[in-house]
Amino acid sequence: MTWFGGIEAVEQITQADRTFSTINTTMALAVAGLLFAVYPALRPYSDETTLEGATAMASSAWTAAHVAAMIGFVLLPPAMLGLRAAVSGTAGRGPASAAVVTAYLGAGLTLPYYGGETFGINALSVEALERRDASVLTGAENIRLDLVPATFFGAGMLLLAATGVLTAIAVRRSGRFAAWAGVPFAVAMVLFLPQFFGPSAGRIGHGLLMAAGFGVLAWALRPRSATA
């Protein structure tokens, strides 16, 4: 009885650990999705070659919006680790493992660019307002479009798009969740780069798509009772 009782206790602890991991994963996904929706909704939009644009980019709303996106990127790789655990033992583990790698690399390459956007362009905008000289804002294009930061950003975005596709494949192949549950997440991630070239309404709409895609995936991965 002692032996079997010990095995049962270990199994209960293991199940508790899995449940805790799943809860963390769903929370990370849900919070990240909301933050990605806040980002374009809170971000001010204006002609960024003018002093009006400088006012927008020097604002606390500019900083807060971009910080929200950065936190979302930080939460994504751990969520992919949780996904891999959720599909462990199924045909979905392979693509889920690949999604972990692309998520870490993609977020790692993207975050420095967002740091430049958040703090570098903000500082330039403050200087432009102090001088009342919009020509100072030409430096913003160097921060965004110089070869190294642009390469980092482009590569990061492509890796994050791959993360979305790999996640959808992992969910479908696992057989443990609704086959379509990863599709909205994948579509949102693939459209992350193209949405930057659209109007403000399109960008806000994409933020809502991010929240929906992340939310659906979180719902699919949510902990279930043993009797469910």
TrEMBL record:
<keyword id="KW-0472">Membrane</keyword>
<protein>
    <recommendedName>
        <fullName>DUF4386 family protein</fullName>
    </recommendedName>
</protein>
<keyword id="KW-0812">Transmembrane</keyword>
<feature type="transmembrane region" description="Helical">
    <location>
        <begin position="177"/>
        <end position="197"/>
    </location>
</feature>
<feature type="transmembrane region" description="Helical">
    <location>
        <begin position="95"/>
        <end position="115"/>
    </location>
</feature>
<feature type="transmembrane region" description="Helical">
    <location>
        <begin position="203"/>
        <end position="221"/>
    </location>
</feature>
<feature type="transmembrane region" description="Helical">
    <location>
        <begin position="62"/>
        <end position="83"/>
    </location>
</feature>
<keyword id="KW-1133">Transmembrane helix</keyword>
<feature type="transmembrane region" description="Helical">
    <location>
        <begin position="147"/>
        <end position="170"/>
    </location>
</feature>
<feature type="transmembrane region" description="Helical">
    <location>
        <begin position="21"/>
        <end position="42"/>
    </location>
</feature>
